[in-house]
Design goal:
CE7; 9-stranded mixed beta sheet; Prolyl oligopeptidase family serine peptidase; AB_hydrolase_fold; 328 residues; alpha/beta; AXE1_dom; carboxylic ester hydrolase activity; globular
């Protein structure tokens, strides 16, 4: 894939106006309050595992509307005292997989919570375990258009609520320090991390990696790749639905969550990325309320920096946490 978006110099200053509904904050405050009101304490089951240096817990916590959501919680076996925690969200179509597939954070001394994505887990990887029990109206195959005619029914209302309540669940666990929680994820997981960071107070940082779900109107018109193309194909059939569809999506745009972030961010972008166009990633980063450091991978597509970028994340998070460590 050649360079197809704005020149790099223009990307770094790209700060477009993005539609934002007047009741954005009220919508999310009401959504989260309703689900928190019926949430139950998370249930952890320790698993026998060949991972001798990491304790593995199968987790079930209350997500949107009290729905049970699965996750993995991994902590170093020799941990003592509450640990800084990383909550991670997954890419589009994948599930939580198997615990040994996600060892970097626990092996680095963190408590690590990996959230399953409701209804997903059958497109790649090693599966998921969380159904989405809520039906929707007509939609194109995939998740992008489920309930897209009404923000209250839209699929990502449930996913983003799960993401926030995952942070709540982690903060309630004795092994995790509730004052030192960061969120991260790649692609869809990066978009979810942006949402969580805009909806949760008191995080120490967010690390969205090549984030999806940003600057919807530009993304839908700029790339011919899925998942954004699910929206294009839906609108090619529902020809008069565009105003309604884009109004719904404005409640879920990563740019609008970035405007509300209360913790710093490390954002990665790949300048040849045809799935999450670089201008849409920069749109969120450049609107970030606290400040986002952007790491560019000029000659990569949607894979971004992969293991190289994880090392950048680990160094960045350690630096973010260093003032806290110096005072304790």
């Amino acid at each position: 894939m050649p360079f197809f978006d704005l020149p790099a110099a223009e990307l770094r200053g790209f700060r477009p106006e993005v539609a934002e509904p007047d009741d954005f904050d009220a919508f999310w405050a009401e959504t989260l309050a309703e689900s928190r009101a019926v949430a139950q304490p998370p249930r952890l089951t320790r698993l026998d595992s060949p991972l001798a240096l990491v304790e593995v817990y199968d987790v079930e916590f209350s997500g949107y509307a009290g729905d049970p959501v699965k996750g993995w919680f991994l902590v170093p076996a020799d941990a003592s005292g509450p640990l800084p925690a990383v909550v991670e969200y997954n890419g589009y179509g994948g599930g939580r997989g198997l615990p040994h597939e996600r060892l970097q954070w626990a092996a680095s001394g963190y408590a690590h919570f990996f959230m399953d994505t409701r209804g997903q887990g059958s497109a790649w990887g090693t599966g998921g375990g969380t159904p989405d029990p809520h039906g929707t109206g007509p939609s194109f195959p995939g998740f992008m258009t489920r309930g897209i005619h009404d923000p209250a029914e839209y699929y990502y209302r449930r996913v983003f609520t799960d993401a926030v309540l995952a942070v709540d669940a982690v903060r309630s666990l004795p092994a995790a320090d509730e004052t030192r929680v960061a969120v991260t994820g790649g692609s869809q997981g990066g978009g979810i991390a942006l949402a969580a960071a805009g909806l949760v107070d008191g995080l120490v940082g967010a690390m969205p990696d090549v984030p999806f779900l940003c600057c919807f109107e530009r993304s839908v018109g700029l790339t011919d790749r899925d998942p954004y193309q699910e929206i294009v194909r839906y609108l090619s059939i529902h020809r008069d639905a565009a105003p309604t569809v884009f109004r719904t999506l404005s409640y879920f745009d990563g740019v609008n969550f970035a405007k509300r972030a209360s913790a710093p961010a490390l954002v990665s972008v790949a300048l040849m990325d045809p799935v999450c166009p670089p201008s849409t990633v920069y749109a969120a980063a450049n609107h970030h309320a606290v400040g986002a450091e952007v790491v560019e991978y000029a000659f990569n597509e949607h894979e971004g920096g992969q293991g190289v970028h994880w090392e950048r994340q680990a160094a960045w998070l350690a630096e973010v946490l260093s003032p806290w460590s110096a005072t304790h």
